[in-house]
Amino acid sequence: MKRCGELLREFNAQGNNQHSIATHEMLSQREAAKEAGMSEYQELQSIRIANVSDELFDSLVESDAPPTLTQLAELGKKNNGVIPLKNEKAFAPAIHFRALAFRVSQPICKAAVIK
8 in helix, strand or coil? Predict the structure, then answer.
């Protein structure tokens, strides 16, 4: 599954994949996975497993209790820096606080650069 995800990452439908032929249309990851007979779930799972570092992947797979594919895929999820909200009512005040902290820090940062 890891190798499958690594191969799928090479397809981006922009002509930058090594598997394209001039007379063949450029394939997206989804199209390449579909042509390989994979479901969308299998595509996502294989890409997530490919995101797991080689060192971590090898140590987990070779352990006494190897993880399931689902557990490996969970480790390879990219959260893009988004933290799930536990309390949606606290979201707006938190954003306002962050903006205020940013505005207050700007003069301090500029003063430190000038010195």
Answer: helix
Residue 9's alpha-carbon distances to 40, 54, 95, 104, in angstroms, are: 14, 16, 35, 42
Rounded distance, CA 113 to CA 62, Å? 51
Judgement on whether residues 114 and 69 belong to the same structural domain of the protein = no
Total structural domains within the chain = 2
Q: How far apart are CA 110 and CA 22, in angstroms?
A: 53
Question: Do 89 and 56 sit in the same domain of this protein?
Answer: no
Judgement on whether residues 103 and 73 belong to the same structural domain of the protein: no
What's the pTM? Answer: 0.59
Neighbours of 38 (CB within 10 A): 17
User: What tens digit of pLDDT does each residue of 4-63 get?
Assistant: 988 888 887 665 555 555 545 678 888 888 989 999 999 999 999 999 989 988 999 998
CA–CA dist 107, 11 (Å, integer): 46
Question: pLDDT tens digits for 61-71?
Answer: 998 988 899 99
Parent domain of 36: 2-83
